[in-house]
Amino acid sequence: MVLTDIRKGDKAEIVKIHADKALKDRLTSFGVMRGEILSVKGCSLARKTMEIEVDSTLIALRADEAEKIEIIQIDS
Fold first, then answer.
1. Whole-structure pTM value
2. DSSP code of 46?
3. 53 membership: H or E segment, kind and range
4. How would you write the pLDDT of the chain (76 residues) with one tens digit per residue?
């Protein structure tokens, strides 16, 4: 399952990030890394962007970036 598969209000644990080094480094600088718990705060109407929260940091991701984040959904 990838990040784009879940909806607003859902929580998930990051399992793996399938991205190049530059994107992994950028995500890591925001706290998005394996083992972290995130929650989806919102999505644009066309689901082209989504807002997630990791450790009280709000991050906006493009859909193509979110698709590279493998997750396990957590029951709320």
1. 0.92
2. T
3. strand 49-54
4. 999 999 999 999 999 999 999 999 999 999 999 999 999 999 998 889 999 999 999 999 999 999 999 999 998 5
